[in-house]
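2024-03-11 09:14:02 DEBUG pipeline.ingest accepted 1 chain
2024-03-11 09:14:02 DEBUG pipeline.ingest length=435
2024-03-11 09:14:03 DEBUG pipeline.predict start
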Amino acid sequence: MDVSNTTTNGPDGFPISPSDRIVAAHLRLNDFLIADTPRDPSQTPLDGGSWKKLPKRQIVDQIEAVLRRLAWLFDHDAELANAHIARLRLTQLLRVLYTVKLPCIEADLRMMLDLTTPLLGRIAPDGPLAYVVEYLKGEDLTPELCQRLREFASHLREEMSCGQASMQSIRQTLHVVLWLDEWEPLDPARCWSEIVRRDFRAMVGARRARWRRLLKQIRGNAPTRMPAGWARDAEARLNEVGVADFREQLCVWFAPFCSGQPLPLSVAGSHVLKGLIWYAALTHDADVKACALGLLDVKWKQKRNVEKSMVALEVFGIGKKDLIARRLIKDEPRATRNLIDRFTQSRFVTIADRFVVDGDVIIVQGDLHFYRLFRSARRIERAGDNAVLELDWHALPDSFRLTITRGCDSEEQLRLRGLLLMQDATYGECFRVLA
């Protein structure tokens, strides 16, 4: 019998074919899972030093192997007793691999996005996007890469994968990267910045390449104030374009601000606007400054995206007081008082208020519903419709499975389910209605 082509299973059950293009990466994962068995992934961080020493092209293969393995483990979760333990180890390894600066080509990025998109909501989404941003420093988008990025963006989920601040940064970055998509149809009703995209696409040859490099420098997750590192790189892009060309284009693009007509502003457009203002400040040109200050006369249709761009005028000495006086941004002291009022009203709502024991029944107040948890019967009812619920253990985040068992065989396990139901806006999907 020829065993050279026989498929073998890893310690996690994953089938490995000797003909697999990245079989060496999968064999390394086998060795890792076996050697990592004594470590408690919930208590002890992974020492990834040896992984970082691999040749960088091997690390790209290793990322692919981990992502493929995670997908298989999720697909076969119901058949495997400890798939969540293997996934915890593999996701920790993935985080280590993502810290390595890699020479990714466009095909690598498409691979990472394709394999990560089905896993969104289960693993953190930032690794592939960070490589895209790094790639764009020297290379350009393609229609295929933009398509993958849009698919990736449409599947983003905050729940159970990363925090709100991280997700906001990721979404902002994606908004601006996809704003650079030169193949997306223009829509003037979407945002003022569509005129920037229109005029850029009309450019040709070396001029278009110079402006592309300048626009690619704009970041969606940039801080409020212009970073020194960004300014250094931006000055180089600005010098390539030339102050005269930049001045002429900026005056064309900012002319609608003085029209008196309400203008649309998207999330991406607000970040593009901020980036152009920063570029304007770097010119040290009086005419460019006068053009940029035309922003003070603008009227926006949407208010929610305004402040992130308007505060950029600080580079020209226009502070928040000036913007508040012109009613371009909200009065910060009033917003602070509202925040304090909301805190005062809510600070007395504690876990004890939302988790009340009344004899054999525990009353739980969730974000969306009330629940009755029967201590003796280990039964869960949704109060609004008396539906009987049970935990869908396979829908739980892997880290929760280290504490919450499949069966509700104790009051402690019942209470843990109650804590999940307190956050039913996020974890309600981990429960199903019993027929």
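2024-03-11 09:14:41 DEBUG pipeline.report The chain has three domains: 8-179, 194-338, 351-433.
2024-03-11 09:14:41 DEBUG pipeline.predict end
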